[in-house]
Write a structure and sequence with these properties.
Blueprint (H helix, E strand, L loop, with lengths): L17 H13 L10 E2 L10 H4 L12 E2 L20 E13 L2 E12 L6
Parallel strand pairs: 1-2
Antiparallel strand pairs: 3-4
Length: about 120
């Protein structure tokens, strides 16, 4: 895989809005369309630990406090609707309310905030 540093021009900053993330990047990903600048990595969020995200999702050389990536949802049970958010070291817990994402007054997605708890997942 080509390193992210080699394709990002100096001074580039990636600060997309929620609308841009869902309406452009996620929409293209779901439609299997090419995204011109490879700035969002595809990872398995539930197979790696959060402290490994920074290195895997880095854009360029500058220090970052936000990382963007695509990840599939794992189901806790094959026929269920609950999401399995456990890793080897802990689990991702949903916090707060989901935020609606609109494009031209049309609902196009929901943003969920997760925090990582370093312990065994509750039943």
């Amino acid at each position: 895989m080509e390193s992210m540093e080699s394709c990002i021009p100096p001074g580039f900053r990636f600060h997309p809005t929620d609308e841009e993330l869902v309406g452009y990047y996620l929409r293209k990903k779901v439609a299997s369309q090419k995204i011109d600048l490879d700035v969002i990595r595809e990872i398995d969020l539930y197979r790696i630990e959060p402290w490994d995200l920074q290195e895997r999702c880095r854009i360029g050389y500058d220090e970052q406090n936000e990382w963007y990536f695509f990840s599939h949802k794992d189901k806790k049970y094959p026929t269920g609707t609950r999401t399995n958010r456990a890793t080897m070291a802990g689990f991702w817990k949903a916090t707060g309310r989901d935020k609606a994402v609109y494009e031209r007054a049309k609902l196009i997605g929901m943003r969920k905030t997760l925090c990582f708890l370093q312990r065994k997942s509750p039943k």
